[in-house]
Amino acid sequence: MFSKNKNKIIKIKNDKNSESRAPGVKWNPWVGVLLVLAIYVLSQVVGLVILIYPVLLHWSGPRISNWLSNDIYAQFFYILIVEVFTVLSVLQLLKWFKVDKKVIGLRKPKLKDPLYSLAAVPVYYISYIVIIIILSTFIKGLNVSEAQNVGFNHVHGVAQLVVTFISLVILPPIAEEILVRGFLYSSLKKGLPQIVAALLTSLIFASAHLPEGTTGLLWVGFIETFILSLILIYLREKSGGLWAGMGLHAINNGVAYYIIYLAPLLTLHI
Fold first, then answer.
1. C-alpha–C-alpha distance, residues 204 and 219, integer Å
2. pLDDT one-digit tens code per residue, 57-67
3. What is the CA radius of gyration of the chain?
4. Is the pLDDT of residue 118 over 90?
5. Residue 33 to residue 221: CA distance in whole angstroms
6. How distant, in Å, are the alpha carbons of 119, 120, 170 from that of 112?
7. pLDDT tens-digit readout, 172-189
8. Are 77 and 50 within 8 A, CB to CB?
9. Could you give the CA distance from residue 105 to residue 178 in angstroms, rounded to a whole number?
């Protein structure tokens, strides 16, 4: 009898700890992980709905492949569909579980959010530079100059620059913060200590960027996104929402956008 009561007390205590770590989360944390992975995979499949266009025009396989790889607007609509599907899927899950959007950090924006974003910029870049220097010292084969394949090659004209900016700087920070630092992190935090949940969330997020190398696995991108994710999670906890993280995420992507697309244009005009 004493043993049963003791186990019941421990279970109640664990349930209270889980509720205090992730208040309002009603789903099992590992179910949450599976749902996030399902949304990620399904979004990539749903994005292929853009293939309806070339199929209706009876294009050949090689022409379709070339269109997907090189057409700026095809890539834009693919990313738009993927990111919109991701956000709508998370919102539908919240509705299905009957929980408020605030549970995953989707509260109203506050004036302090952009201040948090800006304050985190030097922290992120300094942390990244220091860690890369340390890792490069011990890991001789680490290619820190490996380029990331972001698509959108041969961007010309204002219209293409604008859709590329939307595709890389606006859409991913919104969708990825809602899915990863929102739903995924909230799910893991219910069943794990906060630091473990943060590390596992960042590991999953960084792993999704590994295949984006131009010549192989993008390990420098893995490191970069892992560090970024940890800081984004800190912003989530510090600000009580996702907006500050979206801001930092957009700034980071914006810096890359400037380096890849705008800096060469400015150089040509000097």
1. 14
2. 999 999 999 99
3. 21
4. yes
5. 22
6. 11, 12, 20
7. 999 999 999 999 999 999
8. yes
9. 8
Looking at 86-173, which runs of residues are DSSP E strands? none
Scan for tokens 């890359």, then name that residue: 256
Q: Residue 23: what are its φ and ψ, rounded to 5°?
A: -60, 130
Which of 6-15, 116-125, 130-139 comes out lowest in average pLDDT? 6-15
The number of beta carbons lying within 10 Å of the beta carbon of residue 173 is 23
Can you give the length of the chain in residues? Answer: 270
Q: Distance between CA 67 and CA 59 in Å, rounded?
A: 10
Tokens representing 152?
A: 């959108």
d(CA 64, CA 55): 8
41: which 2 tokens?
């995979």
Please give the structure tokens belonging to residue 237.
């906890």
Q: Is 245 exposed, middle or buried (0-12, 13-18, 19+ CB in 10 A)?
A: buried
Could you report how far apart the first and last alpha carbons of the chain are, in Å? 83
